Amino acid sequence: MPSMTMIEAIRSAMDIMLERDKKTVIFGEDVGYFGGVFRCTAGLQEKYGQERVFDTPINESAIVGMAIGMAAHGMRPCVEMQFADYMFPAFDQISQEAARLRHRSNGDFTCPMVVRMPTGGGIFGGQTHSQSPEALFTHVAGLKVVQPSNPFDAKGLLISAMEDPDPVIFLEPKRLYNGPFGGDHSGKAIGWKHHPMGEAPAGYYKIPLGKANISRHGEDVTILAYGTMVHVAEAAVLASGIDAEIIDLRTLLPLDLKTIIASVVKTGRCVVLHEATRTSGFGAELIAEVQEACFYHLEAPVVRVTGWDAPYPHAQEWDYFPGPDRVQRALEQILEA
Amino acid sequence: MPSMTMIEAIRSAMDIMLERDKKTVIFGEDVGYFGGVFRCTAGLQEKYGQERVFDTPINESAIVGMAIGMAAHGMRPCVEMQFADYMFPAFDQISQEAARLRHRSNGDFTCPMVVRMPTGGGIFGGQTHSQSPEALFTHVAGLKVVQPSNPFDAKGLLISAMEDPDPVIFLEPKRLYNGPFGGDHSGKAIGWKHHPMGEAPAGYYKIPLGKANISRHGEDVTILAYGTMVHVAEAAVLASGIDAEIIDLRTLLPLDLKTIIASVVKTGRCVVLHEATRTSGFGAELIAEVQEACFYHLEAPVVRVTGWDAPYPHAQEWDYFPGPDRVQRALEQILEA
Amino acid sequence: MTQLAKLRFPTPPSRPGESVDFSHLLISDVGQLPVPKLDLSAEDSAPYAHGLIRVLDDNGKASGPWADYLKATGSVKMLRNGLRDMLKMRAIDQRLHIAQRQGKTSFYMQCTGEEAIGCGFARMLKKGDMNFPTYRQQSLLVGADYPLELLIGQVYSNSMDPLKGRQLPIMHSSREYGYFSVSGNLGTQYVQAVGWAMAAALMKDDGIAAGWIGDGATASNDFHGALLTASVYRPPVVLNVVNNQWAISSCTGFAGGSRKTTYAERALGYGIPAIRVDGNDYLAVLAASKWAIERTRKGLGPVLIEWLTYRVAAHSSSDDPSSYRSKDEAAAWPLGDPVERLKEHLISIDAWSDERHVQAEAQVLDEVRVVQKEVETHGTFVDPQPMSPVDILRDVYAEMPEHLLRQRKELES
Amino acid sequence: MTQLAKLRFPTPPSRPGESVDFSHLLISDVGQLPVPKLDLSAEDSAPYAHGLIRVLDDNGKASGPWADYLKATGSVKMLRNGLRDMLKMRAIDQRLHIAQRQGKTSFYMQCTGEEAIGCGFARMLKKGDMNFPTYRQQSLLVGADYPLELLIGQVYSNSMDPLKGRQLPIMHSSREYGYFSVSGNLGTQYVQAVGWAMAAALMKDDGIAAGWIGDGATASNDFHGALLTASVYRPPVVLNVVNNQWAISSCTGFAGGSRKTTYAERALGYGIPAIRVDGNDYLAVLAASKWAIERTRKGLGPVLIEWLTYRVAAHSSSDDPSSYRSKDEAAAWPLGDPVERLKEHLISIDAWSDERHVQAEAQVLDEVRVVQKEVETHGTFVDPQPMSPVDILRDVYAEMPEHLLRQRKELES
Ligand SMILES: Cc1ncc(C[n+]2csc(CCOP(=O)(O)OP(=O)(O)O)c2C)c(N)n1
Ligand SMILES: Cc1ncc(C[n+]2csc(CCOP(=O)(O)OP(=O)(O)O)c2C)c(N)n1
Ligand SMILES: [Mg+2]
Ligand SMILES: [Mg+2]
């Protein structure tokens, strides 16, 4: 199997869908001729032409609004928000329009659309290039919310998303675009070439939405993570020697609660990770479900390791980022509890 | 003390602040001459003139954007979103601009502003006049989020909000505007005149932000609620005869965790209520904190009674609304657990 | 001393008790504007954006180039049908407004005074075209012969409602009849119309899209997004602005409408040609719609139409306009009433009479009443017929995911 | 067969390897536009919105009514200072761009080619006025004599940074120097500028606000919100559009810029007068700024200025424009380089010389270098000086609420 970066995997998924389904269109800011500021669409306009892959004005609400109109007509738009931080102008179109169309028209109109966006910190982007808004999307009934942690999943999940009959928010952890990242920001770059999940079939395949992946089996504590934090969890487990089970959620909505429950029932302990600010983050939802379903199996409160409740600072990025030290400490504490 | 509806209480707070502080300005759609579609600003333009109380174009982003500019300059804008459902176009200005200004400018610019909005269902408003978006605001560091459940609190909290140095989201449960509502939608209207919390001083007073109110003392189970659901909780408690402690949160962010913990430690059981859709609602955050802080005191999992994960339907409003029956059932179940 | 800046606050034509002043309205005489070529440019459309396309004068006489343009395809029968459409629209509004007052529905919104616009425009569309209407564009449904029982069923949220009671009354949806699901959020759907039109072009069908927005809602941000994307990609979309002078209680001045600038002119800065049309003149509506739709379908790019009209009724059944404007405004409206004007015209060309009019009014009222009665047997708001609560959870997704299945259990318990 | 609609996709002046075509640009000759009265209306501003205000011709000669207008208040000294400002701006950009390449800062954005605009505009403002700049308006700081050590400290995110390293380099903030905190989100601050101006009017101080936006960002929704609210309330705000032809990799056509319509013209539909100015002509910048600011301060309402210029450098230190446009574009830009043009003009009136220029360049470079060195002793990106992590939690609120106190404990543990 070829080895791919996450960028290449995402590009490959779009390439395949452009090829397979003439109704697929791709657009966004700098997405066309240039191929996207993160290069995810590089070469696609040249290959498929301007009518399939094109640039847009800098107006995220219009990008999603156009996509809704196209999807309702019968096309399959897959659009890019240049950064997740810039989806806010489009949040009205996403949450009040796209997510509701099927329900409010009783299925007369639907909205099969994918909105891709790079998310998370780790590139010194400051407060407007680092946010993780996944919790906001998971509060919207009618959306599906996906976040891969590696190229293999990214490609398979994106193909599933592009074939899904409902609107899907596809969050791409930008710190993982070129290689796995467990929190070691000393500058040593490890590419996806040296990671097993960097291998992915060249052709069409799918990873189903709504299914988590147990990325490490363990007995003592369950770690719930997604995106970059999966790798941070792995680093913390490696450093601590703790026998943790790491669940890579992959899809946040709908959530694979079965896999989560089975694990927590087994381990009796659970740590939840995310990079987003803590209060009302998606970790809260995970804890609410876990404590309800596994109450009688829990031996300690579920704890969360998250970004602080503050804007993502530029220079102090690593004091903000919930790195492996903080995760390790949480693991040690929960095992003592 | 005079008796007031919630509308009158809110109006009185604005009236007093317009009088006390020349830097106060009030604006929004239909807010000026007409006095607001819910009449909250009725008479204020006539009393203070167009320069203090005025109408705006139908552009929520611009309303908040203007308010930010004014607040940064030194004024104290208090603006209205006609319905909380229509705050989405302004969510970018609120979450990415207002909430961050103090932090990102290191205090050089600040944003003392109040954004009022009617929230919740109960008036057959359908999906675009019924939503409860409080969870979204509580995920934004830098905001304060308030929701009163009665006229007395509404007035005191709004005055606090209008004097607060930071941006405050002030959610007004529209179903409570004219009277308490515990879920009996048979048509029997009870006004605030017949409720003790309908009495409020005519003059200036404050209820501090960040302090919950124990609206009923009890021993067996703690109910966490805010806005309309406080009254639903009371109705359920009355109907069931269960000795529940009802905590009216009043401020969701910052949260009065101390009061919550003290109660749950005492009762060992906790039910969380809100009208918003369940997944990633504010209930999740409450559960996350409660289970962490009170784990060794809990005798049953914390459960939530909420709106369903669907758009608020028009005709089936009462099948959607988390009424006293559902709350009672949850109380009974948690006491059996 | 320096002169200090002072804010300006727009004022309406009247406040309660005041006399009405509509003198600020720019109204050209009938016949002043020729019918331009279909590929009219934005620049050359300036007189059309500032002027007013009219066919009927104040005495019901049709004249000028737009009258001739219409005659080439139109017929007297078409006009009589148009009158019937408008009478039907008015009858529907009246009946449903009363039904709301009787508690048979929770909410209603009338389009009184604006009937010509949708009734006429819809007659010029083809199957496969798609309107993106606001809540006040029900006349498009009447002009498309939408089954009355569906229209009324939706308003009653009963078992005849094609939307299963999920939507607020008046927020219709019908793919088949070219009426996109109304959302209730202002502005959002204007840019969706652009997207639909882009899809039509990309998929090489010959459909067009028509966006609809109120004068008040042109203030919303997505108005700009729609004009901009239409200007950049030039898809087949007609962008309609229904300028009825009011947005609930705020006058059109709060959306930037003024003596000096029209909404049509806002399109020119985007390089989109625009025309301004007497929306209370059914013949002008037909003629302008025909021109704009033909142009658009031919791939000549987007066009904006400002329909000048007046909101005669309250904003909605929850509104009482007497608290913010003079009761005399509707009567003082210089462009009159669309039904009266068309009637007068038809009578003047001996194609109609007062008797036939009275007859026709009675007939449509009867038609509406009969259907209404029948629909009411399927339930009303005061006398609902039970629907399955589980329907709330259906159609949130194509398939019900597990968390909704769990909630369904809870709901049914 | 019917002709089908086909979408259009804008094209740039060049792609890599292609020859450059700027023939679409509307450029009037020097001296064509008289200086209008301060209370110019939107209608009467049409020639100004479509034309181009210029003072310097292609040979550096100043002429025409705007040159005279400027002479009435300006002086040669002012022009020489302007040249120094621009040289300083360029030196700062060069040094900090190199510093970024050396890893001393994470990010940088140059304004090469656009220096005249901010340097000139700022010189016409008064204390108490407030700019709402984008990330590329650092020339406003130079024109306001903002202390170099603060400017450089911010870019280094070190202990000299007035913003404590919280913001991305270039996102300065200074109330004192009239530079509102840059957010990084495009468009949002344009309408905040309107709000600030409204506050100035309401609080009866004589300050004005100046909004700034790039051509690409005029596509953002808040551009409309700003124009609309400015048009409705008429507060003292100057709305600036810096049209530098590019938005990262997309040409100005994707924001609707075209041969036929200018950004300035977009204001006319809102009833806001607008002028279009050669942004690479320091004298035109001074003259137009003076006129617009004076008009605004006098309470004559908002005005929009489109500054025609060219983004010579990459979008940012993360960008490489050679992959999307010809390397020859900057050289082919018909309005030349602002520094060269002002230099040439000053030499032509015997107020400057090549020698003095070389000297001045060396001098400002030295000045910048000295401050830079000093600032670097307080830490750089590769060699940071420890800051307290707890600073992250400060200033989220005026007072740290309990949940942040708990997080603070966690952070310190
Ligand atoms: C985003 C948004 N903001 C506010 C509202 C509330 N609202 C409903 S209708 C209306 C007035 C609209 O006026 P206009 O666009 O002129 O249409 P008209 O009612 O005159 O047909 C307002 C403010 C809304 N529906 N959506
Ligand atoms: C809302 C939003 N969307 C996207 C971006 C990403 N972005 C940053 S700069 C830029 C291009 C802006 O171009 P323009 O407004 O012309 O300004 P210039 O860079 O030319 O000065 C884009 C798309 C952003 N910062 N904010
Ligand atoms: Mg209107
Ligand atoms: Mg630009």
How many beta-strand runs of chain A? 12
Instruction: Compute the number of helices of chain C.
Output: 14
Can you identify the CATH class of the largest domain in chain C? Alpha Beta
| Fold-level CATH name of the largest domain in chain C | Rossmann fold
* Domain tally of chain C: 2
| Spatial separation of the terminal alpha carbons of chain C | 76 Å
Largest sheet of chain C, in brief, is:
5 strands, parallel
Strand content of chain A: 15-25%
Topology pattern of chain A, helix = H, strand = E: HEHEHEHHEHEHEEEHEEHEHEHH
Note the run of SSEs of chain C as H and E.
HHHHEHHHEHEEEHEHEHHHH
CATH class of the largest domain in chain A: Alpha Beta
Structural description of this entry:
The complex is a heterotetramer, with 2 copies of chain A (337 residues) and 2 copies of chain C (413 residues). Chain A has 337 residues and is of the alpha/beta class. Chain A folds into 2 domains: 3-176, Rossmann fold, CATH 3.40.50; 210-336, 3-Layer(aba) Sandwich (Rossmann fold), CATH 3.40.50. Chain A contains 12 helices and 12 strands. In chain A, the strands form 2 sheets. In chain A, strands 2-1-3-4-6-5-10 form a 7-stranded mixed sheet, sandwiched between helices. A 5-stranded mixed sheet of chain A has the order 7-9-8-11-12, with helices on both faces. Chain A is globular and about 60 Å long. The mean pLDDT of chain A is 97. Helices cover 39% and strands 8% of the residues of chain C. The longest helix of chain C has 26 residues, at 76-101. Classes of the chains: A alpha/beta (337), C alpha/beta (413). At the C-D interface, helix 7, helix 8 and helix 9 of C face helix 7, helix 8 and helix 9 of D.
